[in-house]
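Dear Dr. H.,

I hope your travels went smoothly. While you were away I took the liberty of generating a structure for the chain from your last submission, since the lab meeting agenda had it listed for discussion. I wanted you to have the full record in hand beforehand rather than looking at slides cold. The sequence, exactly as received, is reproduced here:
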Amino acid sequence: MLHQISWESFLSTIGWMVAIYYLSVGAIFFRKQLVTWVKKRLSMTVVLAALVGHAHAQTADGNNGLSEANTLIRSYFTNATSVMYAIGALVGLVGAIRVFILWNSGHHQEIGKAAAGWFGSCIFLVVVALIIQSFFGL
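The corresponding predicted structure, in token form, is as follows:
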């Protein structure tokens, strides 16, 4: 099944996953600055939302576009799930090697934390794929 995934789609998926990761980490670490920035621009957002409420869109083109986008995203999900499983396998292999190196170098106190971290990241990738699949009914 993995031979059907092109390198372009694989690297694009990796790029999006890295971007989402760094955005979420940035939101966690810079939470206070983000909240103050949003509060400063809240009045501008309310005014723009009021103006958008008066705009009229073409219903037929919008519905067709949304239906097509829905179909495309649902068709990409199986490939994205396969890529997530492949990334999970690679993370598992790298983690196993790292734990093996720690074991052989005599750092027995750090092995538990390292193994739990690497194993947890593999489980996270698999669980996220399953939860998204069951939540959206794909």
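Two observations you may find useful: Residues 43 and 137 are 38 Å apart (CA to CA). The first helix runs from residue 7 to 29.

With kind regards,
E. W.
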